[in-house]
Amino acid sequence: MDGTSSGKLTDDLARLDFAAVSPEEFARIVKGLSGQQIAEVMRGELRTRILGEVFGRMKQQFRPEAAGGLTALIRWKVTGESDAVYETAIADGACEVTPGRSDAEPRTALVMGDAEFLKLVSGNGNPVTMFMMRKLKVAGDVGLASGLTRYFDIPKA
After folding, report:
1. Where are the domains of the chain?
2. pTM to 2 decimal places
3. Which residues does the UniProt record annotate as the domain SCP2 (predicted)?
4. How many Cβ atoms from other residues are within 10 Å of residue 121's Cβ?
5. Measured on CA atoms in the order 107, 115, 12, 85, is the torsion positive or negative?
6. Average pLDDT value for residue range 123-134
């Protein structure tokens, strides 16, 4: 891919109002991007916007009926041009997401690159396969980590 088409893709996505993009449309966008294209897009302010929107939607995508009585703090570390850390607290049938790292000990911590994160949250990647291929690192409760996707409505592209 030449720099021109990659730059156009980044420009097109930079103009996109992510708040207006449905989870299904987001899944289709991610599915159509190569790892190299994701790396191009996930830079600077655009990366901040994309991660903010994805984590911002977790609360709405949460499935309390699937979580039941689960109480857990999940720490997400998305690596790329810089590390982005978010925490998801699940308790009493609710889900709260906060940016940054708290002093609390997470039940499980997930570390992955930008491409793996976007594929995971858009339904375009299998967390078990990512773990086996060492593209997703898990510390703490591996069982919780392997079943996390069932607690959220994840679109299918």
Report:
1. 3-151
2. 0.87
3. 63-152
4. 25
5. positive
6. 90
